[in-house]
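Sequence only, no structure available. Ideas?
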Amino acid sequence: MASPILLILGAGPNIGTHVAKGFAAKGYRVALASRKAHALDDVIHIPVDLSMPESVPNVFETVKSTLGAPPSVVVYNAAAIYPYHQSDPLSSLDAATYTEWMSVNTLSALSALRQSVIGFKTLPPSCSKTFIYTGNMLNIKHIPGMMSLGLGKVSTAFIIQYLSEIEEYKDDGISFYYADERTSDGEPVFNDISGSAAADEYWKLAERKQQGPWMHTFVSGHGYKDFGDGW
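Reply:
I predicted one. C-alpha cells follow.
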C-alpha cells in the first residue's frame, strides 16, 4: 500500500515546517498548500489563497491527482489577524473586512473539513482519518487586540466540537481536533509557539484509533494536559 498523505493548509515556517518534517520522517508523503512555497525536500507545494474559500477544493483535487490518493491527515494551520481601532473596534469593522477575517480563519477551514471528510470516506479502515485545526486560547479567553482572530477561533472551535460528536463520523474512524498549545499553568503561549511540540502532538493525534478530547490542549515537553476549560 502506498504511503499515507499529510496535507497542511497554511504551511508556515514554524508549525507547518516542523509538522511536515516530522510526518515525512515517519513515512508520510507531504503536500503543503500556501501562498508561498517553502524550501522543503520531498514535498509538493500547492499555491492557494485561503482568503478565497472557493479555492480549497482545488487543493484536494491536486493532492489526489498528483499523489494518487486523498490525504489521510489534514492540518489547517492558516490564520489571519487584521489591525483595527482597539478602543473602538466597530468603527473600523465593515462587511468586507469581516468576510476576509472569517474566510481565512473559519470559512476556508470549513471547506477543508468538507473536502477532508469526502476523501476520508474513500480510505481503507486502517488509515488515519484525522483533521487538526491549529487553535489557541481565544475560543475561551478574551485577549485585547485579538478580536479579528478570536472571532474565527471561536467559530471553528464550535465546528470542531460539533463534528467530533457525530456518531457517523466516529463509526467511519474520522477524528477532529482543535489543538491549543499552552504554558504549564494553562495560559496562552502567545508568540512562544513550539513547532516541534506541535509536530509531536499532531503525530499522536494522527495515530489515535478513536476520537479523543476534541479540544487538545498541550504543553511543550509534557504533551496533552486537561486544564478543565473545554466546553
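Residues 5-224 form a domain with the Rossmann fold fold (CATH 3.40.50.720).
Hope that gets you unstuck.
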